[in-house]
Amino acid sequence: MRKLIALLGLLALAAVVATGAAAQPGAPDRDRDRDRGDKRHGHDDRDRGGKHGRHARKARCGKVDRHGYEAIFDGSRRCYEKWRYAGGSQITLQRDGTLKAQPGPPNLGVLWYAARPYGDFSMKLQFRDDSPVAGQRANSGVQVRFPAPRPPVPGCPMTFNGSPETENPAAWIAVNCGHEIQINDSPDGGTNDPRKTGSIYGFADLDGAQSRPTPQGVWNDIEIRVVGQRYTVIRNGVVINEYENAPGVPFPGRPNDPDSSSRGLVGYIGLQAHGAPEDVVSFRNIRILDLSNQD
Fold first, then answer.
1. Which of 3, 131, 155, 165 has a CB 3.0–4.6 Å from the CB of 138, allowing a cystine?
2. What is the DSSP code (8-state) at residue 75?
């Protein structure tokens, strides 16, 4: 029955994509020339990205590897053009073939893979904290199973604890009707966001020890596996979080926003731009395995 529900959901969401208005991927790539020769966007000598690190062979857009993973972002413009952008801030394609989340117009933003939604899946990618602000770490995230952020979306308000977001609000559809897997290696305490890398944001949060942080400038592998309502997060080969999304759980600290029941069995995947000056994060090698037809 779960497979049938997921299949019907995939067909319905795919129809929305087919009829939706055309949009431009990402934000304008207006600053790509500034990154030429910037070592933060090259391969740091400390690069510990594992087998998918700096010596990995780049996947080809749309190709499926021997494990069944499809390359949905390989650094090429061809792949990038399959993504769309919603909200504020920006995520742009760089000359070195990475994606860079960084400040831009006000509010959060999401770069989402518009080619198709997913039910059960395993998603693998690499991220790197490139915060340009001394002493501060970057904040970003991977957002999963949300409806296409083309407002209005019935039942999915663009709010923060019930208060409407009025400026570039579309990314709040992904926030309020999907789950975010947090990227944030800031130290515990102080004014830092207490939800660290690998947290299922607000619902299954990790502290600094549980998240296994790495220094800035280091590529990290992360896998997000979602089957039914079970979420598993694997960082650099280690399981750091597991969570079962039960219905009717209020969003902690935000009782006036949609509860856990708004996180369904099918939706899109995307990358978050958080928007503060320190929130600069790079991404590469994004691959996904559809598990909807597997037992």
1. 131
2. S
Mean pLDDT of all residues in 270-281:
98
Task: Pinpoint the alpha helices (H) of the chain.
Answer: 2-19, 77-80, 172-176, 208-211
Residue-level pLDDT at 118: 98
- Supply the CATH number for residue 236's domain: 2.60.120.560
* Number of domains forming the structure of the chain: 1
> Phi and psi of 191, rounded to 5°?
-95, 5
Give 157-198 as a DSSP string. --EETTEEP-SS-TTHHHHHSSEEEEEE-PPSSTTS-S--TT
Does the CA dihedral 231-233-234-239 come out positive or negative? negative
Task: Identify the domain containing residue 229 by its residue range.
Answer: 2-18+60-290
Average confidence (pLDDT) over 114-142: 98
Give 3-39 pLDDT, tens digit per residue: 544 554 555 555 444 444 344 565 544 443 333 333 3
